[in-house]
Amino acid sequence: QLSNLLILIPSAMIKTRDGIIEEETKSHPNRRTKSLLAIPINQLILEEDGQNKLMNYFSSYKLGKARKEQLQSAKKMLGVHKKLKPNFPPSKSGKYTKNQSSEFADYITMQWLGMTHRQFLKQFNNNIKGLNLEIFLPLRTYAYVIFYKYYLQNREPSKLSDFGDLFHVFYIPYCKLAIIERDLCNVLNQIKRNSNILNNVKIENIDFFKTFKY
Questions:
Q1: I want to staple 170 with a disulfide (CB 3.0 to 4.6 A). Which of 2, 3, 17, 101 is the partner?
Q2: pLDDT digits (tens, 9 = 90+) for 94-133
Q3: CB neighbour list of residue 153: distance below 8 Å, 6 or more residues apart
Q4: What backbone phi and psi angles, to 5 degrees, belong to 109?
Q5: Total number of domains in the chain
Q6: Which domain holds residue 20?
């Protein structure tokens, strides 16, 4: 049923998170402008046995392995969150404030790039002002969600799906419309009201589908 749906409606596979971040480093200091799309799924309609090819992909070892790795990453993130939260203290009032969100995003972005693109960062060793962290939209969106949900709201992740949801947020700043589960939708709209990072994105929860006339 899923393969039928994806062939009939406009669908596409998007680039990987790491691929997008790589494009951002290459476009620095400007924002990347390349398409988010990797492969249009609908082109399979024109291929012989296209639907079976799509079904085989969904049940492939490669996709199953990627899903297992995602679950393993979510487990690690749960432990890392508990260890790292004390490293970013609250304001002088003893509470986290919205004004700290941009600083937190800088912190997370630098930390991530330090692990994945150390050579890119080295060119700014003597020119830190030349580094434009604002262009790394996936990393900053990810950081904002963590800050608003777990720091500002003083919540603690209680299940793996809490971090599993975070794998989706990397792509949202490059979308025109994002339809997501209710809690994450609320968090993203809070971010949108207080930051310009999601200015070009309309964010809706699944109730959006109720507006469709079938």
A1: 17
A2: 999 999 999 999 999 999 999 999 999 999 999 999 999 9
A3: none
A4: -65, -45
A5: 1
A6: 2-211
